[in-house]
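Before relying on records like the one below, remember that each one covers exactly one chain. Contacts with other chains, cofactors or solvent are not represented anywhere in the record.
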Amino acid sequence: MADAALRLTRLAEELLSTPLPVRIRAWDGSEAGPPGAPVLAIRDRKALRRLLWKPGELGLARAWVAGEIDVDGDLYEALDLLAELIWERDGDVKDAVHPVRDPRLRAAARELLKLGGPLPPPPPPPEELRRHTGRLHTKRRDKESISHHYDVGNDFYSLVLGPSMVYSCAYFPDPDATLEDAQRDKLDLIARKLDLKEGQRLLDVGCGWGSMAIHAARHYGVHVTGVTISSEQAAFARKRIAEEGLTDRIEIRVQDYRDVHDGPYDAISSIGMAEHVGAVQYGEYAADLYALLRPGGRLLNHQIARRPLADEEAYHVDSFIDSYVFPDGELAPVGRTVALLEEAGFEVRDLESIREHYALTLRHWVARLEKNWEAALKTVTPGRARVWRLYMAASALSFEHNKIGVNQVLAVRPVASGASGMPLRSRVWGG
């Protein structure tokens, strides 16, 4: 077989009814497709067997994680060109292997069987979270899901995130700013929105590696309680805090937010954490944070949002993200988030979309991972590193194309008189 690339190109174009936008290089050394286009390298024909059994995104993702497919050239350009194949076409085993209704699919399945070799497909790569056990968003299951993502290893995250160790959208003063400056500006923006004052109590929900806690204690003199259910994050944060000499102002707990009962707090920050809460739990999340705030206290909820659907019941979690990146993670439209916060009693006072900033942030992270690739492979498996590279690059494009967004929602627990304590021109944010 020395014409696999040509046969795959013809097969894809027949199914898509359009020319294939990328060039294919097959395991037999053959190439086909538009000259000068990004190259989709199919290094092992086992990738085709995966697609037969899991058409669409999950099959492609498994082949990518296993190193059976790769991109030569600009990854962003290739993902842009292949977006329809990766994100918008899906299927199941029955439709692919037994396509009884469509003669084209029958012919395609036969051709893929010839090219891909004997079934069954290879087992999923080990980086996949294989088991979702128990009821959705229980404390135990949430801890397992968070551990899958955040307990990858602090050394790996240090290579990707840089010295700031902030794993959420930065806030760039201009496109050429450094990632470190933009992350510092994001933390300071949140502190100013919360109107932090010396001696106040701040609860940082999902505190990560302690960056917000350190910034707030060092620059605003507040006392911070940070909670996370990642043991590795907590250990790293405590070490940083000790090195900064801030142990008298910051406490880091390995604790679920549902188990925090030592309010009231003057302010609460929740940065990139609420995506893990889930639709079935979000009302309780909002009510818990409301109960932990003093009257007049402020909440800053920094959260990724998806676009609303005509039929919200049709929403399903992205199969690649759920299997490999954020198990049980869910995105909600920002309007739903605002409604649930207000149902809990909050008054929402400001909403700022910073979607373009997350695209820039992710491109910085991808660049750092690619630059430190060999070092990263000493901290995690190749499959895990490949997951993060694909996930972050694809996410950058999703933000750039307005498929998803990210918002900072500032809310207040009103006092009995109805006063909010907000300045007349709140967008000044002090400082």
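Residues 171 and 185 are 6 Å apart (CA to CA).
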